[in-house]
Amino acid sequence: MNEMMKNNMWFKTAFLTFVFCVLGFVQSRADIQLTVDVANKTASTVVVVYQTTIVEIPLDDNGHGSHTFQHIGAVHASLFYGMDSKNIFLEDGDRIHISFDGADFKGTVKFEADGGKEKIFKYLNQVTLLDVPQEKMALPFDEYAALVDKKEESMMRILKAWKLDEVSPRFVAVETGRIRYAYASSLMMYAVGHPFVAQDTTYRPDEAYYDTLKKYAVADENLVELKEYREYMKEIARMFGCKKEEAKTPYDRTICMMNYIADHIEDDKVKQTLLNVLAIEQVEQYGISNIDELLNLHGTYVTDPVLQTAFKEKYDAWDLARPGNPSPDFRAWDVDGKAYTVADFKGKYVYIDLWATWCGPCRREMPFLKQLEEEYKGRNITFLSLSTDARKADWLKMVKSQPMTGIQLHLGTGSRFQTAYKADGIPHFILLDPEGKIVNANMLRPSSPDIRSYLDRQPGL
């Protein structure tokens, strides 16, 4: 009897150990590990962009870098090195290694991953979605729709011919959705494009147009992380849920779209995701004043803790960066290592540029910023550029080798200042008043034709 009990205890212990090991393995494979090796590096970071997220991966002196992505599901992404980029696909559990020569990124890049996923990388960077020529919108809708269908069928045949379901069925499902909703959006744009291309101001969409769009309006939780799908479903909600007299403001439009989604989409994951996206976009663009109805809808239908946290972060971030509030503080350094904070610039308006050396759009704004600084020389305003480069050496190299105007400081990546201003993308511009209070947390770019009139309206500037 005692021997039998000992055997049972041994069996239970062994079984539990096995279960814990399996669970630990599954948990560890839920993340994505990306490593990068660069020979003859010409930049100190690679950048991965997916959805609205930007991840800088620093490279050490040997050109090596790594990053672990946590629970992002399966997404299309772009890998940037300098101004060049390649398309990649990230899926939970992936172990990816990318190597290339920094002097010839596009010509030497090598993608390695488990399960033969190199084939997906090749597909993404070799195959291009076929555009439907804009002039074809002059056709009657049924002929245009038939042409779009042919383009979609052609792309689906190409995808099938690559036999990528043998590598990742999940990729094939997501890519099929991307193709389908890219062309569905082309159909949706017909109502706007046809009057312009055909020079027909009398055109009004008919029942066949709306019936065609409704065929694509299917709740599919497997596609809800796909940008093309979400944008299409949101536009369906606007089109069928918002009467013209009810959508006079962006907030009114958001509310009627949210009501339509809450009433018409039964799949809970799709419903919650779309409602959360709409709520976040409204808060990001217009703030948190007078949004009680939005909060009621969001609080009622969005119960997923992950989605709730994402919304709360955006809500709290806007509250910090509300116009009239004291600016969140920063600590940044000049080329000599001297530290500065917001308090050091009080007494004048401060036009802040959040940028990075690897950011192409940031560089394109520089000539406009330089011209603006020249025009406002001697006025009550300071032009301050804060570099968000992960490596200070990159910023120093550019500042010392190129004629940079204004005050140049290094802030670094992931600062509380950048987070408080919801500056997920750069360049991002901010205007503070002489007391260090926020005038505009999402200020006009230097290239904007309206920036001078905006600045000139500020009292005492």
TrEMBL record:
Record's keyword annotation contains Ubl conjugation: no
Q: Which UniProt keywords apply?
A: Cytochrome c-type biogenesis, Disulfide bond, Redox-active center
Q: Where is the signal peptide?
A: none
Please indicate if the UniProt record lists Disulfide bond as a keyword: yes
Q: Where in the cell is the protein located?
A: Cell envelope
Q: Which GO terms describe its cellular component?
A: cell envelope
The beginning of the lineage is: Bacteria, Pseudomonadati, Bacteroidota, Bacteroidia, Bacteroidales
Indicate what this protein is called per its UniProt record.
Antioxidant, AhpC/TSA family
Molecular-function annotations in GO: oxidoreductase activity
Pfam families, per database record:
Redoxin (PF08534)
- Residues annotated as domain Thioredoxin: 321-460
The record's Gene Ontology biological-process terms are: cytochrome complex assembly
